[in-house]
Design goal:
It contains twelve helices and ten strands. It is of the alpha/beta class.
Length: about 425
């Protein structure tokens, strides 16, 4: 059977004391997430209004800085050499975030692309940014529509667009370029950061998965435990910590739809992923990259065991540890600059929710205690793999120590793209 990824709370971790109750934030706000329009500035304003209103309804008013971080954003090309003679010569990058995340997770890379003379726009996927309850009834087709409209918003502002997707956002980006629908503007390249993928699924498995979705839509009719298998504090300012069953099912449905695509992709593709990633199937992503991309391509394969991807000549292996700083690279840390104020080295953020069900045991207290460091305790940073958790008290690494090289390699690859 094809291994499908659990798109759940394992990817959405925080340091704070968790709460277990279902609250107003787990109910739909009854507000629609705005979709991208040609007036991207108006879209940004509308999305921020939605984020503020949804949380106000849930009794959790947000600070302006948090609303801004959660919402879509636009960055203008920077530098003297960025101004083209005509608007139609401008290059653009459209950023698509992961399931349960917000555009903030790609802001660090967006700033690097803006410095490389890209017009950068980041969209907010439906059901995100407001309250987790808005994911109870969302359909992944709404995410696909948001991507289509995000691309269309660039008509008249750019000559071409590079799609940059993280996690489920990478799946959506790939789904868009492989679809047979007309493209609003030319796609210059594809950037996939730890995309959620699966090996091609047999027909019987696809049918079984459809049947499973039909029986368990995650809308609460089977009770709160079915709709919300895990409930956390939702205190992280820029992402959800609780995800309903429906969100996982929609992510899996998108992956299955993509797995049925058999055509090769003749387009420049840059991919980066950690072999240790426990949120997505890194091996399935690597196999797709090495066998289904016909255009120019490069894969940054973060690994602690060099040589595992040597059979594919388009792979650049990059050591991810173990070092004094981290054992390996996590999924959530991949696109984050170590200087990031929310998740970086000096942010004070401690990702410990994987010990939630053990919060009366020493591991929870060691992980959450700010006095415990790699220098004075057994606490280690990295991915929350079974091997790491068996050997260490783990804090999930929330940034990428190799971010500068990743960003430079990405820009260099795009500069060389025809």
């Amino acid at each position: 059977m094809t291994r499908l990824v659990w798109f759940g709370a394992a990817a959405l971790l925080t340091c704070c004391t968790p709460g277990t109750e279902l609250g107003k934030r787990h109910q739909p706000s009854q507000l629609a997430t705005p979709l991208p329009t040609s007036d991207f500035g108006a879209y940004i304003v509308a999305a921020r209004q939605y984020i503020a209103a949804a949380n106000q309804i849930a009794g959790n008013p947000l600070a302006e800085a948090v609303i801004e971080d959660r919402g879509p954003f636009e960055l203008q090309p920077e530098g003297r050499g960025c101004r083209a003679g005509e608007e139609q010569q401008v290059r653009a990058a459209l950023l698509i975030h992961d399931l349960g995340e917000t555009p903030y997770v790609l802001r660090d890379l967006g700033e690097r692309l803006a410095r490389a003379c890209y017009l950068v726009r980041a969209i907010l996927l439906p059901g995100h940014g407001g309250v987790p309850g808005d994911l109870l009834s969302v359909d992944y087709h709404a995410w696909q529509q948001a991507v289509r409209l995000g691309v269309a918003s660039l008509v008249g502002s750019a000559a071409e667009v590079t799609l940059v997707g993280f996690g489920t956002g990478g799946t959506l980006a790939l789904d868009y370029v492989l679809s047979d629908q007309p493209k609003a503007i030319p796609i210059a390249a594809l950037v996939l950061l730890a995309p959620a993928m699966a090996d091609p699924a047999p027909a019987f498995e696809v049918q079984a998965q459809r049947f499973y979705h039909a029986l368990a839509p995650g809308d609460g009719w089977l009770g709160s435990e079915s709709a919300w298998p895990e409930v956390f504090a939702d205190q992280d300012p820029a992402r959800y910590e609780s995800l309903p069953t429906n969100a996982r099912q929609q992510g899996e449905g998108l992956v299955l739809e993509l797995a049925r695509q058999e055509s090769a992709l003749d387009l420049p593709v840059f991919m980066a992923i950690s072999q240790a990633d426990v949120t997505v199937d890194s091996d399935a992503a690597r196999r797709w990259f090495c066998t289904s991309v016909a255009g120019r391509r490069q894969l940054l394969w973060y690994t602690t065991t060099p040589g595992t991807a040597a059979a594919c000549r388009f792979v650049t292996e990059r050591s991810s540890g173990p070092t004094k700083e981290a054992l390996d690279l996590s999924h959530i840390g991949l696109p984050i600059d170590p200087r990031n104020p929310r998740y970086g080295r000096d942010s004070g953020y401690r990702s410990c929710l994987h010990y939630y069900w053990e919060r009366d045991a020493p591991s929870w207290f060691f992980c959450a205690d700010p006095a415990m460091t790699t220098a004075n305790s057994k606490v280690r940073y990295g991915e929350i793999s079974a091997a790491n958790l068996d050997a260490h008290v783990m804090r999930r690494l929330t940034y990428n120590p190799d971010f500068d090289r990743l960003a430079r390699d990405l820009v260099d690859f795009l500069e060389d793209a025809p």
